[in-house]
Structures are given as C-alpha cells and as structure tokens.
Amino acid sequence: MKQELYFDRHSGLRLSALMEDGRLIELGIENEAHREIVGNIYKGRVVNVIESMNAAFIDCGLERNCFLSLSDGDACAHVAGVAAADISGKKPQNAPLRLKAGDEIVVQVLKNPRGNKGAKVTARLSFVGKNLIYMPGTDFLGVSRKISEAELRDNLLFTADSMRAKGDGLILRTVAPYARASRLRAESEYLRNLYLSVQEKSKTAAVGAVLHREYDLPIRVMRDNFNDDIGRIVVGERGLYDELESLIRLRPDFDKRKIELYTGEYDMFSQYGIARQIRELSGSTVPLPNGGDLIIERTEAMTVVDVNTGRFLGDENLEDTVYATNIAAAREIARQVRLRDVGGIVVVDFIDMQDERHRKAVTQELEQCLARDRVRCKVLPMNELCLVEFTRKRTTNGVASQLLQACPHCRLNGYILSNEFIACLIRAEILGRMAQGAQTVVVQLNAGVMEFLFSRRMFEKDMRAHAGKKVYFVPHRTYHEEKFTISSYGADAAAELPAGATELRYD
C-alpha cells in the first residue's frame, strides 16, 4: 500500500502525518517552544549517588535532575534518538559505572521528563544515521530484526565489522541493504566525527551545555520513515519545504518529483482530511468499523483499553459476534497506540470469549498488527479473563501531551485541548472562510486563549499572505477554553463588530 507524508509548521507547532490509503497511521507533533530532548547530549555533573538504587542523579541544566543507572550495561538498551532498537546480535555487558558526587560526565537523553520524574539518561552514547547507528566504546554489532534473510544479515555484519574501529559498535538499520558499501562507510565516518566533536566540546563546555542536539521532527521523520512505500511528500510551509528539499538532494534513491509545496488556500491538514483524524485523538472513545468501540484511558502507571460491542449485533451467535468485534479491536488498538505514541504498559480488556481458538486468534492478530510498528512491542498471552497485556517502548510523552493540557476547572484531574491545538483549529477555520471569499472574519473566544494567541504572534505569516483581509478577535471571560465561534463577511457586506473586538495586525 502506498503511503504519503505531510509536513506543516504553524501556531508554534511542527506537525507530520503519515497516511496510508487515506487513513492516518502515524502522527508527529513537536512544540517549538518545548522541543523533545531525546537524543540530546549534555555535559552534566553528578549531584548524588544512591547506592541502594544503583543509580546517580545528574545535573544537566534541565528543570529536574536526570536519572542515570550505574549498571547501564546492555548495549542494545541504550540506543537513543531512534524509536525502536529492534536489533539482534551479541549483547556485551559493559562494566558498571563508578561515580561520586561532583564528577562531570557526558550523558545522552533516553527518555523525556515525565510528571515529577526527570529525564532518563545514559553514559553509553549513540549517534543515529539513516543506515547506521554508531556506538562509540561499545563493542557490538547488530542488524535490524526486520532484515530476516540470513545470508544478507551475514553480509551486512561482515561489511560493518570492516568499517568500525576497535571497541566501537555499529547497528545496521532496516534500510541499510539498499545503500552501497561506500555510502555506509561514509556515514560511519560522519557519525564518528560527530562523536569526536562532542568529545572536543566537552573539554571546555560548562555543566548543562548541549553538546549535540537531535534533529527537528521533520528531519527525524524523513530519516526514520523513508522507504519505497512513500509515494509523495507534501509540505505546507515554504521554509520547511526548502529545508526538506535540500535534504532530499543528498538522497540519490529518492525521486525529487515526489516532494510538493502545498499552495492551496485552505489549511493543508483540513484539505486532505487529516485535521479531523487528529481531532479524534483528543477523545477517549474510538469507533470501530463494525459499530463497536474502544475506550482508551491513560493513567500514571499504564494505559487501559476497554473493548465494547456498541451497536454491533452480528449475524451469527454471540460468540461469533464477540470474536468479530475483538478482531476489529485488535487491529484498531495497534493503530491507536502508534498514532498516540503510547508508551509503557498497555492492558486491553477484550470482550469475554469462551472458545480458546478465538482467544489465540485475537492475540495473534494483535501481535501481527503491532509488528508493523517501528517501536518495539512485546505481547503477553491472553488470560482467562480475556485481558491482554503488552508493552511498547516509551521514548516521548505521547501525542496527547501536545494535544491536551491539564483542565483548570476540575483540580487538574482532567484534560482539555492545548492552546497550541486550539490555535490550529482556529487557523484552519479562518483560512477556510477566506478561501470561500470572506474579506472580514470575526472570532469570539476565551479571553485567556486570545491572550495566548496574541502573545505568541500566531497567524503572522497567514495574515501577511492575505493582505487586505481583516481578522478580529473578541475575548469572553465566560467562554470555556475550547469554545470559539467564527463569523465571516464578504466584500459586499458590512462587518458588524461586537464590542471589544481587536483587529489582528502585525506592523
């Protein structure tokens, strides 16, 4: 099945969407004011060592001290900056770290801060390229498990072994077989030079300095997702288009005609039906194609999914109806955890089935669908209560952290749409009205959200691109944060501006 990639940048967000036959299968959202730090390398200082936890806490200049495991041993467990270290090979154990308070150390972020927890870091650095992952000081060779042909794996390992310096490690990623040996060697040398530059910077850098920063979202998505299934790439912002086009020029295996700059008047994600699918991710209820539904609830410890038959009654007996619903649920659960970037433990409460064959079939369907995910998942057998537990490697705080924010009305126990995402929705509505001929648009919204939009200079590029058209905002103290209404007027109609209307202007 052919896939399409969409990229856009507006309202303080960078967005990427991977579509397959019109369905959103992977979403990336990055807040430009609060970028992901996974893969970043910092110079830190040991604050204290907790012997009972075999761990140390490191000051890296972040809001909270970072957690470092002193055992930090399994090389495969410390591949930062890539969603799945889905690799196999001989796994050496590195010697435990010996640290004391006051020591300075170079560390790389494995997991973002979450809740009251600081970032998780490692002292075993890794540098991720398109075809290779380079691990200095870790004597290890590995190949992506998705490369299953034994002879090909052996040839790749032989090639990698001839390229690496003694004591260093290399992992060959899924696309490595499509690259020439000379390109692999050049990439290996480039990644090694990155490491040497980090070493050189660390000698004079202050504690808390960023020695190496992971690529922005669009570059990471291009690096990790590009394959022959990608039919085209559509970019909604000129600066981002130029950035990606320069990257593509370095890729002889990519047809430059496949990248397009979107020039339509409507919001790009709305035009291609992506915005509606993103909006659905902010809710906890997910409809199934056969009329059933899923309820997805996040907790601090895990994510819980409940499967319901809903309106689906089936044509056969109860057992067959339940089985058909559970099969549909297994497919959609695999899609949803990938879309929402759910990490950690996931528990699925399937509808009770009596037939053991049905239980095994549902579990196998879930495993097969999760196998398409770039992030490594491990599924446990279904128990007698028809509960299935699986784990998915956690690297980010999930898409929900960008779409939602703590609700101020329920003692922070619930969630509402984030200001950035509300800005995306308002922008799409404004562009849609203007594309239909409106000369004046009036937006009535929550006063706090309006203050946020004006302070961040949202829609500045859009307004400069629509010179002569006017947008007014009217603040309301009584409006819920998610509520907004829009009125529009053509050139032949006089705009009736409510009291308190403020024109959106960028002088």
Mind explaining what this structure looks like?
By secondary structure, the protein is of the alpha+beta class. It folds into four domains: 3-34 and 226-277, 2-Layer Sandwich (Nucleotidyltransferase, domain 5); 41-215, OB fold (Dihydrolipoamide Acetyltransferase, E2P), CATH 2.40.50; 282-392; 416-503, Ribonuclease E, catalytic domain (Hypothetical Protein Ychn, Chain: A). Helices cover 28% and strands 28% of the residues. It contains twelve helices and 28 strands. The strands form six sheets. Strands 17-18-19-20-22-21 form a six-stranded mixed beta sheet, with helices on one face. Strand 2 and strand 3 form a beta hairpin. The longest helix is centred in the middle third of the chain and has 24 residues, at 181-204. The chain starts with a strand and ends with a strand. Residues 80-88 have low confidence and may be disordered.
Structural class: alpha+beta
How many β strands by DSSP? 28
Contiguous runs where pLDDT drops below 50 for at least 5 residues? 80-88
The first-level CATH class name of the largest domain:
Mainly Beta
What is the 3D form?
A: globular
Major sheet: order of its strands? 17-18-19-20-22-21
Oligomeric form: single chain
Q: Per CATH, what is the topology of the largest domain?
A: OB fold (Dihydrolipoamide Acetyltransferase, E2P)
**Helix run count:** 12
Sketch the major β-sheet: 6 strands, mixed
Annotated CATH architecture of the largest domain = Beta Barrel
Annotate the secondary structure layout.
Blueprint: E1 3-10, E2 13-20, E3 23-31, E4 41-50, E5 55-59, E6 66-69, E7 87-88, E8 104-111, E9 120-122, E10 127-128, E11 132-135, E12 141-144, H1 150-163, E13 169-172, H2 181-204, E14 210-212, H3 217-225, E15 230-235, H4 238-248, E16 259-261, H5 268-271, H6 274-280, E17 285-287, E18 293-298, E19 302-308, H7 318-339, E20 344-349, H8 356-370, E21 377-379, E22 387-392, H9 400-403, E23 404-406, E24 415-417, H10 419-435, E25 440-446, H11 447-455, H12 460-465, E26 470-476, E27 484-489, E28 502-503
Parallel strand pairs: 1-15, 6-9, 12-13, 15-16, 19-20, 25-26
Antiparallel strand pairs: 1-2, 2-3, 4-5, 4-8, 4-14, 5-6, 7-12, 8-9, 10-11, 11-13, 17-18, 18-19, 20-22, 21-22, 23-24, 25-27, 26-28
